[in-house]
Amino acid sequence: VAGAHLDSVPEGPGVNDNGSGSAGLLAVASALAGAAAAPGGLGLRNAVRLCWWAAEEMGLLGSRHYVGTLLEEGGAEDVALNVNFDMLASPNWARQVYNGSDPTNQMPSSVAGSSYIMQRFLGHFESKGLATMRVAFTGRSDYGPFLEAGIPAGGLATGAEKLKTMAQRQLFGGLANVAYDPCYHQPCDDRLNIGWGVFEDMVDAAGAVIYDLATTPQLRAKLKFPRGA
To answer: So what's the pLDDT on residue 1?
Structure first.
């Protein structure tokens, strides 16, 4: 399951938060559809479900309802992992990869799988010569309900209201002691509030890793995640 939340806060248009993640996932969907229609198709070994979540800003209501329904109806057995894309184009960006190796805020059963997902993203960026940083799972985005259910998760972001450090400025450029997105949850989160270069980097990574995971044989064994096996 790959997802991005489609809503924004009432105070702002939400072009970065989270129009960027939603549009990025739509670009991945378009690319997958085009490849599927080409001779030879995609060669998928694992099904891909793309989800645009409602009411994330109201407490992850859409993704929480989805996971809760899966658990009630037994459908969670079919879900191997979740990847989440939230704020992919912050103007004072850093390329952030969720730290799946950190056991904080996830069940013990999901750590190995979340670590595997993280390594796929890190490997992609390394192959492109692009710097990254790892960020903790905080439960603030739609990966949260999946982790609470013991399902491995991962994903990408480019930063919200926290200030960029001098060390991060040296790694990514931009401005130190300024928020990654100075317009976070504000009216100025409009069409001018987009870091186009990093957006392309993050969408490219999202598409590459989703395709990698979808074509990986014996994926559950690599995730060390026996549910549904």
So the answer is: 97
Catalytic residue among 56, 126, 148, 161: 56
Q: Per-residue pLDDT for 111 more than 60?
A: yes
- The model's confidence at residue 204, banded by pLDDT at 50, 70 and 90, is very high
Local structure of residue 58 (DSSP, 8 states) = G
Q: Would you state the structure tokens that stand for residue 98, as one six-digit string?
A: 């969720």
pLDDT value of residue 226: 59
Q: Determine the 3-state secondary structure of 130 from DSSP.
A: coil
For residue 161, indicate whether it is catalytic: no
Would you call 104 helix, strand, or coil by DSSP? coil
What is the C-alpha to C-alpha distance for residues 14 and 10, in angstroms, rounded to an integer?
9
Is residue 90 within 8 A of residue 185, CB to CB? The reply is no
The answer to whether residue 228 scores a pLDDT higher than 60 is no
Residue appearing with tokens 């198709």:
41
Is there a contact between 125 and 172 (Cβ–Cβ < 8 Å)? Answer: no
Taking CA atoms, 209 is separated from 133, 155, 203, in Å, by 17, 10, 10
Residue holding tokens 């491995």? 152
Segments in the chain forming alpha helices (H): 21-37, 61-73, 111-127, 144-148, 166-172, 196-214, 219-223
Where is 96: in which H helix or E strand?
A: strand 96-98
Contact of 146 with 156, CB cutoff 8 Å = no
> Helix, strand, coil proportions of the chain in percent (round to 5)?
45, 10, 45
Distance CA 15, CA 17 (A): 6
**Residue carrying structure tokens 């099904």:** 47
